[in-house]
Amino acid sequence: MQIMVSILNACTRGANKTRIVYQANLNFSTVNPYLDLLEEKGLIQVTEDRMTLYKTTPKGLDLIENFSNINEMLKS
Questions:
Q1: Tens of pLDDT along 10-65?
Q2: Distance of CA 10 to the CA centre of its chain
Q3: Do the Cβ atoms of 72 and 38 come closer than 8 Å?
Q4: Which of 32, 58, 72 is nearest to 7 (CA)?
C-alpha cells in the first residue's frame, strides 16, 4: 500500500515513468505492475501526448488522504 501511495504522490501534478521511479524509490521493472493496477482501479490517468504522463485522479487523491488519516490514527 505504501508503494502505491508513493506512486500516487509522485503523480499528483503529472509525472513520467522516470520521475515516478526515482520519487517512489523503485526500478523500472517493479513500477509497471503498480502503474497497471492503479490505472485499472481508476486511481491514475494515463495521457500520451509527446510522452506518456501519469496523473493522480480525484479518486487517487482521496486514497492518499485516507491513507494519511489512517497513519495518523495509528501513530496516536
A1: 999 999 999 999 999 999 999 999 999 999 999 999 999 889 999 999 999 999 99
A2: 6
A3: no
A4: 32
